[in-house]
Amino acid sequence: MANERYVDPVCGMEITNIKDAIGPIEYMGKKYYFCEVEDKEKFEKNPMKYVKSKKEEKVKSMI
Ligand SMILES: [Zn+2]
After folding, report:
1. What separation in Å is there between the alpha carbon of 58 and the centre of ligand 1?
2. pLDDT tens sequence across 23-60
3. Residues with CB under 5 A from ligand 1 (ion)
4. From the CA of 63, how far away is ligand 1's center (Å)?
5. What is the pTM of this model?
6. For the residues of 5-38, what is the DSSP string, one character each?
7. Residues 7-27 pLDDT 10s
8. What residue spans define the domains of the chain?
């Protein structure tokens, strides 16, 4: 059995049971699960706020 770990990117809670989780939402090729509908809605409104992009990290290291 695959033991992939998912963390709710909005509140930071670990998803222990995907069957009870909200989702998945696919964003930038990655799947995200949420502990409640509210978190999912927050994520959908502004996913950039919750997902750290690799591009951003690159820019920071260049400065
Ligand atoms: Zn949550």
Report:
1. 28
2. 999 999 999 999 999 999 999 999 999 997 666 556 66
3. 8, 11, 13, 35, 39
4. 34
5. 0.75
6. -EE-TTT--EES-GGGSEEEEEETTEEEEESSHH
7. 999 999 999 999 999 999 999
8. 6-62
